[in-house]
Amino acid sequence: VQLVESGGGLVQPGGSLRLSCVASGFSFGVFSMSWVRQTPEKGREWICDINDGGGSTSYADSVKGRFTISRDNSKKTLYLQMNNLKPDDTAVYYCCLKGNPPLGPGTQVTVSS
After folding, report:
1. C-alpha distances in angstroms, 93 versus 27, 53, 60?
2. Mean pLDDT of 39-60
3. Residue 73 has what DSSP assignment?
4. Number of neighbours of residue 21 by Cβ within 10 angstroms
């Protein structure tokens, strides 16, 4: 199983970023997936889930209405569209199989003016 996140960076408050996670080594299209984030201060925080077909999603209250999870099973890729970013969104972001710990390197998102 390999998951590689990308798309992070430095953005001003109110800005947007789109994260990607490319999967390999397993049947991506039959698994529910999640995004989580981690900081030294808060530890690991679950952000959102999406089911195998992409038709069902759930979000943490902290990101609901601002973040959108999606997937393209033909490309074995998971996405996270992040809008109206806040300084509290600063973290390393990871994708993972739902209910499992992150395996990839993560991608750093920094929200700062």
Report:
1. 22, 22, 14
2. 96
3. T
4. 26
